[in-house]
From TrEMBL:
<feature type="transmembrane region" description="Helical">
    <location>
        <begin position="40"/>
        <end position="66"/>
    </location>
</feature>
<comment type="similarity">
    <text>Belongs to the band 7/mec-2 family.</text>
</comment>
<dbReference type="InterPro" id="IPR001107">
    <property type="entry name" value="Band_7"/>
</dbReference>
<protein>
    <submittedName>
        <fullName>Band 7 protein AGAP004871-like isoform X2</fullName>
    </submittedName>
</protein>
<keyword id="KW-0812">Transmembrane</keyword>
<keyword id="KW-0472">Membrane</keyword>
<dbReference type="InterPro" id="IPR043202">
    <property type="entry name" value="Band-7_stomatin-like"/>
</dbReference>
<dbReference type="Pfam" id="PF01145">
    <property type="entry name" value="Band_7"/>
</dbReference>
<dbReference type="InterPro" id="IPR036013">
    <property type="entry name" value="Band_7/SPFH_dom_sf"/>
</dbReference>
<feature type="domain" description="Band 7">
    <location>
        <begin position="61"/>
        <end position="220"/>
    </location>
</feature>
<keyword id="KW-1133">Transmembrane helix</keyword>
<dbReference type="InterPro" id="IPR018080">
    <property type="entry name" value="Band_7/stomatin-like_CS"/>
</dbReference>
<dbReference type="InterPro" id="IPR001972">
    <property type="entry name" value="Stomatin_HflK_fam"/>
</dbReference>
Amino acid sequence: MAGPYTGIDMAHYDKEERRNQQSSGYSVNADSGDSGGICAYLLTGISILLIICTFPFSLLFCIKVVQEYERAVIFRLGRLLLGGAKGPGIFFIVPCIDTYCKIDLRTVSFDVPPQEILSKDSVTVAVDAVVYYRISNATISVTNVEDYGRSTRLLAATTLRNVLGTKNLSEILSERESISHVMQASLDEGTDPWGVKVERVEIKDVRLPIQLQRAMAAEAEASREARAKLIAAEGEQKASRALREASEVLSDSPAALQLRYLQTLNSIAAEKNSTIVFPIPLELFKGFSKRMKE
Ligand SMILES: *[C@@H]1O[C@H](CO)[C@@H](O)[C@H](O)[C@H]1NC(C)=O
Ligand SMILES: *[C@@H]1O[C@H](CO)[C@@H](O)[C@H](O)[C@H]1NC(C)=O
Ligand SMILES: *[C@@H]1O[C@H](CO)[C@@H](O)[C@H](O)[C@H]1NC(C)=O
């Protein structure tokens, strides 16, 4: 798509050019009155005459329709028409002197192809992402960039590399959410002059080299094993301490041991009421024998 200038009036062009450079970006030109001089008026007159002469049939070429989600950016003799993008619905063009292009305002998504990235701590990871964007201003998406879709795609790939290049591996793996937000903000800033609004960026997948995966798995397993051993050792320590205390208590009074035997017998009997073979310690009868003697 050509720029907004007809290029006939060079002095005017220069003035415009300077103004645009100062404001760094395209601004919609409001004075379409002096856009082509007498030649333009002549062409417009002839076109309108043609429309009137061929009246019912000319409507076929004059009336255009865009869908609810579309806008039409119209150029009359190369100049952007006043009033911005037309639509949705019916709009009129003058054949021969008008050209227009339809812009879809719906959200578009694309995959950023997997990028091999060297993280801050020198690990190569392959990362891919999904980007969702839509056109926020149809006019400047036509006038400021040749192909907004392709440009956004390329910018997304480089932004992904730039953002992830500043992170180390553990950050890449653990902070996907914040990386997505940083990327969305920085991509949106870059596409702003093209009338493109980046709505969402999602990091899809982070793939590590196979060797690193194995090493990490081994590391995780080893640390888990170490923790398990520690827990087992602690348990044993506690158990042995408790046993020592128990034995101290039992040794304090000999009758306690006998009671313990009886208790054990009782608990076994409650659970399994079949025949029980239980070694009866002789100490049990000492008490009885003492009493018999008395
Ligand atoms: C699109 O951008 C142009 C130039 O910056 C501006 O004049 C126009 O108002 C914008 N249109 C919308 C719908 O924001
Ligand atoms: C990754 O970077 C963060 C902050 O920049 C730091 O706190 C962390 O220790 C680093 N991790 C590694 C494994 O270098
Ligand atoms: C043995 O225990 C079962 C339940 O556990 C009970 O139904 C049964 O009556 C018991 N038998 C005797 C002889 O107590």
